[in-house]
Protein: Acyl-CoA dehydrogenase
Organism: Mycolicibacter terrae
Amino acid sequence: MTTGIDATSIALLEDTLRKTMASQSGAELDRALAELGWAEMLSDDPDLAIPLVFRLLGETGAHASVLNDVILETIGGVPGGTPPMPYAGGSWVIWERREGEGNPVLGGLPLRGVPGGELMRVGDAQRALGWWLVGSARAMLALARQHALDRVQFGKPIASFQAIRHRLAETLVAIEGAEATLTVPVVESPDLTSMLAKAAAGKAALTAAKHCQQVLGGVGFTAEHDLHRHIERVLVLDGLLGSARDLTRRVGGGLRARGSAPRLVQL
């Protein structure tokens, strides 16, 4: 879908958002995004706002409560709310907007368990999480690639070793494939398309975590390296609004019961 903003303006906006997210996170970033017009962007041009903001959250490692806003925009909820979201294992969480440290068990994100919630239309929110997962996967790939170029064994960078190249290439293919599912125009069944896009993004992020960890080796396990933070983050984001495994099973079960598959992409 097209947007009325020209390419130069989009590039300037992306640069501003990237610099803002590189220096701020959490409630502080919420306030900064509000000043930059996040609410208006989401309402007026969600096809630009959602991919851009959520992808950059993944690439920079920052976090904000903007997923709440996407859900509330979809269901017509009161701005500033914290709608319950389904999480892995049949549990429910809310994304806190208040100041304070995130729960370290949940990837450093301010998520709090709640007794339960009500299922709602979350297609846009699933796509938003998909972009966040893709951004995180690209950040992990960048870290692994740079390490492969810098790390020398047997007198040459490990980036020259075929096994390393294969892992990096497989990661890139997974990321590009997931991004393609997030950008295709929806022909029909938007809910189904959103579930598959979220599943593909979750799978790509988990693939990136696995391969990039192998490329980095022991240093990737240390608290001093940024990789482990991205891995913890994608494990949490994959579990929100349906994990890659759960969504794949749900879609497969639905298609088997239906006995046919709808056209998802116009080739």
